[in-house]
Specification:
Blueprint lengths: L2 E3 L5 E3 L10 H34 L5 E7 L5 E7 L24 H9 L7 H5 L4 E3 L6 H10 L12 E3 L12 H17 L2 H38 L10 H6 L1
Parallel strand pairs: 5-6
Antiparallel strand pairs: 1-2, 3-4
């Protein structure tokens, strides 16, 4: 089996999976670039506004960058709006974000819930490092670990990584290897069967997902001030945990 060298300093087996509709790949690449160019101005204005809020609500940089593994193992620099406290991994190294992660800032949670923190990656699409739709790119340190424990993990880099993907519209963020295995099944399916019809369905699903996430975030913001007041007035903070109906509303 052939070997590919990752510029991050680790090596791994090259993906053996090949997309069935290979004629679509160059068309997809061109379409991604044109779409990112057309969306670049409105997205850029929104990014400037969000970056300003990030700076005003927490200390540190508005943007941050990470090295991610792209097509066929090529490592590139991916850009995001900062959603966590500055230098949050200085003592832990690369780790997954957990539910109710204390490292996430208040405004950062809103950005993560709505996925608006990913907008700067339009620049990565214009550079040809990412697609609008594809498996989400992972960090080299985590890829090096997962390729040793999960069979066929590198099949997901047979296509360019994306801002959104089949796994992202169906499953929550990675938290352990079991969740990675579930997402990998979606990523391998996408990499094998990528087509215009599949991309269209994922794009429509992403729009609906983002719309619902924005509505949910707005809902939370309207009543968020009540949470601290309730915790101050009532010592039994298990009140909401014991009532499934109340959980579903949140």
């Amino acid at each position: 089996m052939s070997r590919s060298h990752f510029s991050s300093g680790f090596t791994g087996d090259a993906p053996t999976l090949r997309p069935q509709h290979r004629w679509y790949i160059p068309l997809k690449t061109t379409g991604d670039w044109v779409a990112a160019l057309l969306l670049g101005i409105p997205a850029g204005l929104l990014v400037i506004l969000l970056a300003t809020v990030v700076k005003l609500t927490s200390s540190g940089r508005a943007f941050y960058s990470q090295r991610r593994v792209g097509l066929n193992g090529r490592v590139f620099t991916m850009y995001k709006l900062r959603t966590m406290v500055e230098n949050c991994e200085s003592n832990t190294g690369a780790v997954w974000c957990q539910q109710d992660d204390p490292r996430v800032t208040r405004f950062g949670k809103l950005l993560r819930d709505t996925h608006l923190d990913e907008l700067p990656q339009m620049w990565n699409v214009l550079r040809g490092e990412m697609s609008l739709i594809g498996p989400r790119p992972e960090r080299p340190e985590i890829v090096a670990r997962l390729q040793q424990s999960i069979p066929n993990y590198l099949d997901r880099i047979a296509v360019r990584p994306g801002l959104t993907g089949l796994a992202q519209v169906q499953l929550p963020a990675d938290s352990d290897e079991d969740s990675v295995r579930r997402k990998l099944a979606c990523d391998r399916y996408y990499a094998a069967l990528v087509s215009p019809w599949l991309d269209l369905r994922i794009a429509l699903c992403t729009c609906l997902y983002l719309f619902s996430a924005l509505l949910k975030a707005l809902c939370h913001s309207l009543v968020s001030s009540c949470k601290n007041e309730i915790e101050r007035r009532f010592s039994d903070t298990r009140l909401f945990e014991e009532h499934p109906a109340a959980q579903n509303i949140g």
